[in-house]
From TrEMBL:
Domain Rieske: 13-116
Keywords annotated in UniProt: 2Fe-2S, Iron, Iron-sulfur, Lipid degradation, Lipid metabolism, Metal-binding, Oxidoreductase, Steroid metabolism
Cofactor(s) needed by this chain: Fe cation
Presence of the UniProt keyword Membrane in the record: no
GO molecular function: 2 iron, 2 sulfur cluster binding; metal ion binding; monooxygenase activity; oxidoreductase activity, acting on paired donors, with incorporation or reduction of molecular oxygen
Database matches in PANTHER family: 3-KETOSTEROID-9-ALPHA-MONOOXYGENASE, OXYGENASE COMPONENT, IRON-SULFUR DOMAIN CONTAINING PROTEIN
Subunit description: Homotrimer. The two-component system 3-ketosteroid-9-alpha-monooxygenase is composed of an oxygenase component KshA and a reductase component KshB.
InterPro entries documented for this protein: Cholesterol_7-desaturase, KshA-like_C, Rieske_2Fe-2S, Rieske_2Fe-2S_sf
Gene Ontology BP annotations: cholesterol metabolic process; lipid catabolic process
Record flagged with keyword Nucleotide-binding: no
Organism for this UniProt entry: Mycolicibacterium agri (Mycobacterium agri)
Protein name: Rieske-type oxygenase
Length: 342
């Protein structure tokens, strides 16, 4: 894959771990957005995500740093840092260094995931991370579903925008996922940082059916470029979360989560096995996409069929707002300028 012409430092909420990977007292190492980071959980359960390096002499807090009550203690000289990244104790001096601060990131835990807010300009969050249940406003909760099933693929050469573009790409369903007929989009709403896409789709029947016969579909909510949640209707009840997080300027980590609905009153092992099978199938379909994305080159401007124009133009214009240069969604403009300058 060519290095994407789109910025790998977009603004928004991005998944950096699952909540159960950072238990009370744990210090968890991560690399995202080209930064070494740690996530640590205080005795109270409060979670902090911050830069990994101690502001004293630069020890990496992920190698031997440990949680002491509500603070993180550096392994090198024992300086202690709090939830805000402030130094609160130098063990061999009567006062802490009040001026120094380790960069911390706004963090939320939702749907068993840890999301951080990333913004190169340090702006506060201006939209909310979507919730696979609450965001659909239908009163559903995790209790209505079997436990979350997960896929985790590390350091793939792909950009988060490729994944979201699936949300307007009706033609790929037939070729990548072998749906019998091409789905039809019924909603494209790209007015806000949270966008909405609905489509009618079926995985059953043959090529002879028409889309008007189809009584099933998917509703998707994209929270910026990092997180998308979906809800199905008219088929086996399932919800999904896809979360793509840039690691450096070439690669991203991909996390995909699936929930299969419980059938009220049926707690049988057979129903659970069926759910497991169905969840595996949805994950398998997502890996078909990953296979394409991880070798794809971003095409801009793309050659589009007439029916693709509207959706791709809308999503690419929408994506621009998340890039530091404000033009990432249309790299062609950059190339055009460069061409003139040369
Ligand atoms: S480097 Fe962290 S306390 Fe010295
Ligand atoms: Fe897909």
């Amino acid at each position: 894959m060519a290095k994407p012409p789109l910025s790998m430092k977009p603004t928004g909420w991005f998944q950096v771990a699952w909540s159960d990977e950072v238990k009370v007292g744990d210090v968890h190492r991560m690399k995202y957005f080209d930064r070494e980071l740690v996530a640590w959980r205080a005795q109270s359960g409060r979670l902090t995500v911050m830069d990994a390096y101690c502001e004293h002499l630069g020890a990496h807090l992920g190698y031997g740093g440990h949680v002491v009550g509500e603070v993180l203690q550096c392994p090198f000289h024992g300086w202690q840092w709090n939830h805000d990244g402030r130094n609160v104790c130098i063990p061999y001096q009567d006062r802490p260094n009040r001026g120094r601060r380790i960069r911390t990131f706004p963090v939320v835990e939702r749907n068993e995931s840890i999301y951080i807010w990333h913004d190169v300009d340090g702006r506060a969050p201006y939209f909310d991370a979507p919730d696979v249940f609450a965001s659909f406003g239908d009163g559903s909760s995790a209790a209505d579903y079997y436990p979350q099933m997960r896929l985790y693929r590390e350091s793939l050469e792909l950009h988060p925008q490729y994944v979201l573009e699936n949300g307007v790409d009706f033609a790929h369903f037939k070729f990548v996922h072998q749906t019998p007929i091409v789905p039809v989009f019924t909603r494209h709403d790209f007015d806000q940082p949270i966008s909405y896409v609905d489509f009618t789709i079926t995985f059953e029947g043959d090529e002879d059916q028409t889309i008007d016969d189809v009584r099933s579909g998917v509703e998707a909510i994209n929270g910026g470029l990092g997180i998308a949640v979906t809800k199905s209707w008219g088929m086996v009840d399932n919800r999904t979360i896809s979360a793509i997080t840039p690691v450096d300027d070439r690669t991203s980590d991909v996390r995909f989560m699936v929930y299969i609905g419980r059938r009220p009153g049926d707690d049988s092992a057979r129903a659970e096995a069926k759910a497991q099978e169905f969840g595996d199938e949805i994950i398998r379909q997502f890996t078909q996409d990953i296979h394409i994305w991880s070798h794809q080159r971003y095409s801009d401007p793309p050659a589009l069929a007439g029916a693709e124009q509207q959706g791709f133009t809308a999503i690419r214009n929408w994506a621009k707002q998340f890039y530091p240069d404000g033009i990432g969604g249309s790299a062609a403009e950059v190339y055009a300028q460069r061409g003139r300058a040369e």
